[in-house]
Structure formats: structure tokens, C-alpha cells
């Protein structure tokens, strides 16, 4: 595996000694993009204020975003592609000093591809609260210090409202399509339920209509892993020297998450009971190969993400419930009246098919293919990122319909 490919977008495989050596050296206190770092392909909105569900107002907020293709004169060909929890605006492209990983949907967006940039203007913003350019905990507050743990609590609806501000600034009155998988599917649902006229088409991939108790529980232990790291220092760690940030806690949270993202079948088939580098974990203090896989990707992750952002985004996911403050789940989903692709992965243990079945059952718009689209995949939840051909076939069909 290319070291710079996000682990979410590639099948699991054995970690080589060369790959392990690439992580030698102390990571910075945060893997966030910071002002003064190379811009790469990022663009930024003008600063805006956002009223939050908590009753607070976030002032001087900005979203970082990237785009591909050309916006037509009528601004009717804009496709909004939203990213999942640990993604960012770099949906397509190579890794560089400015972008720590290559595009998480390379092969799906581009000239002649499923989301054809010869036809569409495609845009991906980094979510509010994220750490790759958009305002978040690693950003500076009005006093000139990082927000840290004082960054305001966000909900999925708050973040969806920030995406609406992006559209307003770009003078895009209606999206040609909104596409979201996993956490991004939560955002996409909220955008369309709140304003059914915001888009002509909608794609919800491997996302639920609400976060269940089981999902909140899985999220909670990840957040506690971060907070229990003494180097987390209550969220005030940005001035820590390399190697003294909350790396152990964040890496542990990432290991936990990876187990939810992949299927038992994939891990069992890929690794079995193999040893890492042929060193016995029984008599020679070695590790099983699957342990090394989790260690490697946990240690890699801390070099591109921020612990406070992880807490902010996962907490927002816990807030997700399309029925909250609305009459019912059925009536909330019934507000979705545009042609919609609802897609699930048969081996997804993070957001199982039951959630997508609810969405497909209760939307009032035309359902792509006439039913929930189920992809059979060994890759679990991450199948919506890895199964490019199957996902692309259905996304392309929705866009052309």
C-alpha cells in the first residue's frame, strides 16, 4: 500500500518493515493544517458567523474547500461531495506537503469518470470543526490562541448549515446533486430535510437516519481513550514538543474505529493468526500481524489529524437524529422529494443495512433503482470508499437520470 493513501480507501494488508520505518520520528502535537502551512489546492470562504444549536454563535468561521471542473454560467452543474469523519477536502489528487494523503475518492471523480468533471463542477469542503483548513479546535480564537477544548459544541445540523453558507457565497442556489457517505450522509440528509429544494438529486451512502445507542457507545470509548491520555492536557496541547501531544490516546481511538470500519471476514482472511515479520508473539515478544496493522495505522493517523477535532466531529455524530425536534422519523424523511440513491454495504457493522432500509422506505422521492442498493463487499463500512466500480456505477446512473 502507498504510505500516503488513507487507510479508509484501501484494503487492509500486511505492514512491511519499510512502512514501519516511515513512521520513525516523533509526530507533532497536532496533525492539523495550520495557518502558514502550504495551501495546496485549498480555497477558503470569506469569514462568516454561524448561530449554533447550543445557542452560541461562532464568529469569523471559514470553510476550506477544493473543486474540480468548471461552474457553468447558470451555476446549475454543481455537485457537492461531502467527506466522512477522517476525510477532508482533498477528495481527488496526489499527496504533497500540503495534503498528507492522496484523494480519498481517486478513480471516481474526474474527466469521463462516474462524477464527470467534464460535465460537473465538483466541490468538497472540509467540515466545520475539522482540522484541514476549516475553522475548528486547532484554529485561533479572537484572543489569538487555539480554541482547543473551548471550541463550541457542534451538531450535524450546525455543520450542514455551514455548507449552506458555502453555497450562498458561491451563489449556487441549487445543487445538481449532493453526495454523502457515512458522517457525510448525515450532513446530506439534514441539508435536504431542512430544505427539500436545495438539490436536484441526492446520494446517501452507508449512513443512518440516526445514531443508535450502540453507535454512541462505540464513539464514547474512543473519546475517552483520547481524554485519558495525560498529554491531552484537557485539550491544551498545541504548544507541546513533537512526541508530547495526545498521540497514544488518538492512535488508540483510531484503532478502535478501524475495527468498526472493517468486517471480521476481511481481517480474518487477510491476517489470520500470522505473526508480524515472522517473530513469535508467544516466545519472542513479537506481535500478530493484525496488531501491527492497527498500530501502524493508529500511528500514521496522528500525523494528519487533531485530537480535539476528533472529539468535536465524533460528538457531532452522536447528535445525529433526523427526527429530533421534528414530528417523526417518517415525516422527516418524507420531506426528501428529489431522486435519491440510498446505498448500503452488506458487511457494514458500523452503520448496518437496517438504517439505510429505513431511509429508503420513508423518502417520498423517486428511489434510484426502485429499491435500496446493496453492495456485497468484504470491506465492511469502508466498502463505500473502496468499491469504486460498484459505487461509481450507481452514482453515475443517478447523475445521468
UniProtKB/TrEMBL annotation:
UniProt family annotation: Belongs to the AB hydrolase superfamily. MetX family.
Key words of the record: Acyltransferase, Amino-acid biosynthesis, Cytoplasm, Methionine biosynthesis, Transferase
Entry EC number(s): 2.3.1.31
Self-association state and partner proteins as the record states: Homodimer.
Location, primary (coarse class): cytoplasm
The protein's name: Homoserine O-acetyltransferase
Gene from which this protein is expressed: metXA
Species per Swiss-Prot/TrEMBL record: Aquiluna borgnonia
Higher taxonomy: Bacteria, Bacillati, Actinomycetota, Actinomycetes, Micrococcales
Keyword Transferase found: yes
Pathway(s) per entry: Amino-acid biosynthesis; L-methionine biosynthesis via de novo pathway; O-acetyl-L-homoserine from L-homoserine: step 1/1
Amino acid at each position: 500500500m502507498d504510505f500516503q493513501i488513507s487507510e479508509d480507501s484501501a484494503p487492509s494488508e500486511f505492514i512491511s518493515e519499510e512502512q514501519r520505518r516511515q513512521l520513525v520520528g516523533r509526530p507533532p502535537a497536532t496533525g492539523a493544517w495550520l495557518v502558514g502551512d502550504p495551501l495546496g489546492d485549498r480555497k477558503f470562504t470569506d469569514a462568516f458567523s454561524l448561530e449554533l444549536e447550543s445557542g452560541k454563535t461562532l464568529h469569523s468561521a471559514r470553510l476550506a474547500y477544493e473543486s474540480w471542473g468548471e461552474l457553468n454560467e447558470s451555476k446549475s452543474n454543481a455537485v457537492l461531495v461531502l467527506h466522512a469523519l477522517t476525510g477532508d477536502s482533498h477528495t481527488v489528487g496526489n499527496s504533497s506537503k500540503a495534503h498528507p494523503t492522496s484523494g480519498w475518492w481517486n478513480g471516481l471523480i474526474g474527466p469521463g469518470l462516474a462524477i464527470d468533471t467534464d460535465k460537473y463542477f465538483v466541490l468538497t469542503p472540509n467540515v466545520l470543526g475539522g482540522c484541514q483548513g476549516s475553522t475548528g479546535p486547532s484554529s485561533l480564537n479572537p484572543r489569538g490562541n487555539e480554541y482547543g477544548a473551548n471550541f463550541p459544541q457542534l451538531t450535524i445540523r450546525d455543520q450542514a448549515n455551514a455548507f449552506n453558507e458555502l453555497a450562498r457565497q458561491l451563489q449556487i442556489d441549487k445543487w445538481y446533486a449532493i453526495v454523502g457517505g457515512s458522517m457525510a450522509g448525515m450532513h446530506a440528509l439534514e441539508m435536504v430535510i431542512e430544505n427539500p429544494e436545495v438539490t436536484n438529486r441526492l446520494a446517501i451512502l452507508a449512513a443512518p437516519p440516526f445514531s443508535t445507542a450502540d453507535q454512541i457507545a462505540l464513539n464514547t470509548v474512543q473519546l475517552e481513550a483520547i481524554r485519558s491520555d495525560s498529554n491531552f492536557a484537557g485539550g491544551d496541547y498545541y504548544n507541546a514538543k513533537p512526541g508530547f501531544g495526545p498521540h497514544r490516546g488518538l492512535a488508540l481511538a483510531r484503532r478502535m474505529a478501524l475495527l468498526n470500519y472493517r468486517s471480521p471476514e476481511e481481517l480474518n482472511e487477510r491476517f489470520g493468526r500470522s505473526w508480524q515479520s515472522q517473530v513469535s508473539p508467544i516466545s519472542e515478544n513479537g506481535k500478530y500481524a493484525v496488531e501491527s496493522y492497527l498500530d501502524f495505522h493508529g500511528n500514521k493517523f496522528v500525523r494528519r489529524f487533531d485530537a480535539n477535532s476528533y472529539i468535536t466531529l465524533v460528538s457531532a455524530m452522536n447528535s445525529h437524529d433526523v427526527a429530533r425536534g421534528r414530528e417523526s422519523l417518517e415525516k422527516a424523511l418524507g420531506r426528501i422529494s428529489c431522486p435519491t440513491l440510498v446505498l448500503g454495504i452488506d458487511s457494514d457493522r458500523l452503520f448496518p443495512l437496517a438504517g439505510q432500509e429505513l431511509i429508503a422506505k420513508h423518502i417520498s422521492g423517486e428511489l434510484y433503482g426502485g429499491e435500496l442498493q446493496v453492495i456485497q463487499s468484504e470491506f465492511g463500512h469502508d466498502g463505500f470508499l473502496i468499491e469504486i466500480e460498484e459505487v461509481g456505477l450507481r452514482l453515475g446512473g443517478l447523475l445521468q437520470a
